[in-house]
């Protein structure tokens, strides 16, 4: 259900209903009715506004299969970390070297 997924992402970000509605520029009462399942077909524009604040693509709200993601797949926080590393210019090789160094360091302790 879209409303449940919005609520889950909102809580993960530590935002209240009021904070999310204000930051996204949507009516708090409408957001509340979506989260509670009273309204079930929000517009793409609404989802885009909410997604922008929560840093979640619209697909995450509507794709229920993502909710049942296997434990081995990346969660949202890891995806954000990897994207930030990529944006800052860290290459795959540098990232691998960092991981190898940490493994080596951990084994020595």
- The gyration radius over C-alpha positions equals 18 Å
Helix coverage percent of residues?
55-70%
The CATH topology of the largest domain corresponds to 434 Repressor (Amino-terminal Domain)
> Helix count?
7
Shape: elongated
Strand content: under 5%
Q: Characterize the biggest β-sheet.
A: none
The H-and-E topology, N to C, reads as: HHHHHHH
Mean of pLDDT: 84
Extended strand count? 0
Provide the domain count. Answer: 2
The CATH architecture of the largest domain comes to Orthogonal Bundle
Q: For the record, what CATH class of the largest domain applies?
A: Mainly Alpha
Describe this structure in words.
The protein is mainly alpha-helical and 109 residues long. It folds into two domains: 2-68, lambda repressor-like DNA-binding domains (434 Repressor (Amino-terminal Domain), Orthogonal Bundle); 76-108. The chain contains seven helices and no strands. α1 (2-12) crosses α3 (28-35) and α2 (17-24) crosses α4. The longest helix is centred in the last third of the chain and has 17 residues, at 92-108.
């Amino acid at each position: 259900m879209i409303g449940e997924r919005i609520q889950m992402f909102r809580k993960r970000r530590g935002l209240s209903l009021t904070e999310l509605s204000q930051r996204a520029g949507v009516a708090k009462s409408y957001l509340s009715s979506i989260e509670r399942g009273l309204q079930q077909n929000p517009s793409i524009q609404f989802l885009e506004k909410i997604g922008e604040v929560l840093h979640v693509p619209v697909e995450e709200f509507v794709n229920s299969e993502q909710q049942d993601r296997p434990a081995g797949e990346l969660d949202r926080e890891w995806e954000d970390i990897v994207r930030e590393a990529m944006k800052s210019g860290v290459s795959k090789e540098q990232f691998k070297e960092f991981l190898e160094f940490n493994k080596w360091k951990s084994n020595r302790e």
